[in-house]
Amino acid sequence: MKKIIAVDGPAGAGKSTVSKIVAARLGYTYIDTGAMYRAVALKVLESGKPVEEVTGDIEIKLDEAGKVFLDGREVTKEIRTPEVSRGASDVAKFGFVRKKLTELQREMATQGSVIMDGRDIGTQVLPNADLKIFLTATVEERARRRFEELKAKNFAADFEQIKKEISLRDKQDSEREIAPLKMAEDAVLLDTTNLTIEQVVAEILRLAQT
Ligand code: DC
Q1: Regarding predicted confidence, which is higher, 81 or 115?
Q2: pLDDT value at position 142?
Q3: Centre of ligand 1 from the C-alpha of residue 37, in Å
Q4: Vertex 11: Cα angle to 8 and 198 (nearest 5)
Q5: Which is nearest to 148 in space by CA: 162, 136, 134, 135?
Q6: Would strands 131-136 and 4-8 be described as parallel, antiparallel, or unpaired?
Q7: Whose CA is nearest to atom 16 of ligand 1?
Q8: CA 85 – ligand 1 centroid, Å
Q9: Is the pTM of this model over 0.85?
């Protein structure tokens, strides 16, 4: 059984949805690294302070139930707004932010039996992962999924606007200088455009067991 699984890919490809299910089926810990960049962005937005200042003494914790804590306060819901999504992609450009979160993420994975998702897990955070998956889907399909997700949570949602924002985040995440979104050479590419969640989960479980 593969003990450390890295899942990377663009926004809305289904990383967190399938990673959570795979973690539950294998009894693994799921680590959502995007939530950590979102927590940094939330702190910047709430405090109005520059990211350099905010990152120095920040405390970010993820619990087993998927709750996110920023400096001891639960922010699980607050980090899911479109404003924080944009902010997370912005703060993710800074080397000092990435260094701090990468160290934390490596520490969280030392026990093994983890599935970690993000943008640079297979390439930077856990280059020795036992299994690397690169999940992708067309921008239309990813926007459609985000649209449905936001609607279900009662956030105001506009499909064209979401598509524009996803395209912008794709560009920003793929073109940044430090640790850009990129498929690791030894990753397995899974295009989820025409696959159900269960089909993607089954394929990852199959790969984890071989
Ligand atoms: O996966 P997500 O949408 O929650 O991620 C939010 C942003 O955080 C994403 O646009 C880029 C950044 N991110 C990153 O740079 N590296 C990671 N490992 C995870 C997220």
Answers
A1: 115
A2: 96
A3: 6
A4: 70
A5: 162
A6: parallel
A7: 119
A8: 8
A9: yes
Token duo for residue 105:
């993420």
CA of 90 to the centre of ligand 1 (A): 10
3-state secondary structure the chain: CCCEEEEECCCCCCHHHHHHHHHHHHCCEEEEHHHHHHHHHHHHHHHCCCHHHHHHCCCEEECCCCCEEECCEECCCHHHCHHHHHHHHHHCCCHHHHHHHHHHHHHHHCCCCEEEEECCHHHHHCCCCCEEEEEECCHHHHHHHHHHHHHHCCCCCCHHHHHHHHHHHHHHHHHCCCCCCCCCCCCEEEECCCCCHHHHHHHHHHHHHC
pLDDT reading at 173 higher than 90: yes
Residue 142: both structure tokens together: 């990813």
**Cα distance between residue 183 and residue 168, in whole Å:** 19
**Type of residue at 45:** L
Domains of the chain and any CATH numbers: 4-202 (3.40.50.300)
Pocket test for ligand 1, best of 37, 139, 165, 174 (most atoms within 8 A of CB): 37
